């Protein structure tokens, strides 16, 4: 399991897990799960387009993910869920049409949708690391205003915080995370990683700092266990990511309701 | 008509099945979609498509009809979304997301088993993006039955359902049980998603559910008008999409046609953009 050819998989998985956990906490706090689901699918269309044109998939992923994030931010102030749904299907249909046009080999499609951790190259790990550092710096800079605006948007707006700018920054952050995670765990499972472990962390930890650390730790545990299980069983990694993320959520929920029940007999 | 459709369109039995099934599905999706948009449940609607996807993949694994797989998975998934989100309404989107993620994982597993046990290719494409041209005519009777049951159920509960969507307090005062309403509607939604997954694929059925309904709600005044408008817009989108996809075979020398689902989504987007522009123009004048 720790052979040289698995090194890139472990490195990429670790990088993706830490960022997904940290950004995912805000996805959960801000109730923007739907946007967080739509953006990775935009990234999927980008990768399909890059395959057709013949450029680097990572470039297509970043451009399309950021583009759909800005689209949702610009259009979705009021009728949020409908706009998100429409943006989502637009990108997916575009991806399907581009794949049909390029006549891509089916395993390539499977890898984009459900992930292929063994296919990560050394160059991609370096690119991933750079993007992770960038996302980390941005998250550190906007951490306080973002937290404030996430917990109470009205109060933040009344105190003069630029709520719209914060919203757009946050969605771009989600987009960068998605672009990182899609080649590793796939467009459909990226979302499981950004919602399951952070939602579990928020139920277990009250303080924001502790919740952030716990979210990153749980997401790391989820990815590491998934890589190990996928290696041992030969089954797709996406299944294990989805199952472990849901499992963490269910356990955390049971623990928190047990604790509430003890506090209020 | 030859400027619109390429030769052989009307005499082709595959196309005829597609047109009939497409119309049935479009009507159900449009009617259910109006309630989805009014209740603000687009995310649940979309999550059910991903759950249905797991069912479709499972069905192709055991060799059952995809519609049965879509339906069963939709009922289980809808029930668990409703059960997980019922206590804490604020955390409903997170609960929906967790169910969605688990379902996507199951899809990955089933598709892996399908491709490794049968060496058949193309199952990912057909489950996810679907193609109404590959649906066998034997599915039509069952899907018509499902469509009728769905519409009758929705018609039966429409008053308490709308009341509990628009004003939960008033509905509770009148003795409507919100959890029963929520569960009933999720099951209706699951049936409608299963039908549209058959035609334009699980992943894209959200387009048919939300698109025509939101376009019609922008243009029409009452709910009845919006429902009728959504039916017209939905049927038009599916039929036009089928025509476009059929014609696209002749557009390029390589004869590589555009998938039906992509054509249907394109027509839906034009409708939404048109209705948005029209309602802006009207508001600007008024």
Describe the structure.
The complex is a heterodimer of chains A (265) and B (286). Chain A has 265 residues and is mostly helical. Chain A has a domain at 4-187: Orthogonal Bundle (ABC transporter involved in vitamin B12 uptake, BtuC). Chain A is built from 11 helices and no strands. In chain A, helix 1 packs antiparallel against helix 8, helix 1 (4-29) crosses helix 9 (187-204) and helix 2 packs parallel to helix 4 (80-102). The mean pLDDT of chain A is 81. Chain B is built from 12 helices and no strands. At the A-B interface, helix 2, helix 4, helix 5, helix 9 and helix 11 of A face helix 2, helix 4, helix 5, helix 10 and helix 12 of B.
In short:
The complex is a heterodimer of chains A (265) and B (286). Helices cover 86% and strands 0% of the residues of chain A.
Q: What share of residues are in beta strands of chain A?
A: under 5%
Shape estimate of chain A: globular
Helix content of chain B: over 70%
CATH architecture of the domain at 4-187 in chain A: Orthogonal Bundle
- Outline of chain B, from the CA principal axes? globular
What pattern of helices and strands is seen along the backbone of chain B?
A: HHHHHHHHHHHH
What are the secondary-structure elements of chain A, in order, as H or E? HHHHHHHHHHH
**Structural domains of chain B: how many:** 1
Give the CATH class of chain B.
Mainly Alpha
Individual helix count of chain B? 12
Mean pLDDT of chain B: 82
Helices and strands in order:
The complex is a heterodimer of chains A (265) and B (286).
Chain A: H1 4-29, H2 33-53, H3 57-75, H4 80-102, H5 106-114, H6 122-151, H7 153-158, H8 163-185, H9 187-204, H10 208-233, H11 237-263
Chain B: H1 13-39, H2 42-62, H3 66-85, H4 92-118, H5 123-128, H6 139-156, H7 158-166, H8 168-173, H9 178-200, H10 205-219, H11 223-248, H12 260-285
Helix pairs in contact in B: 1-6, 1-9, 1-10, 1-11, 2-3, 2-4, 2-9, 2-10, 3-4, 3-9, 6-9, 9-10, 10-11, 10-12, 11-12
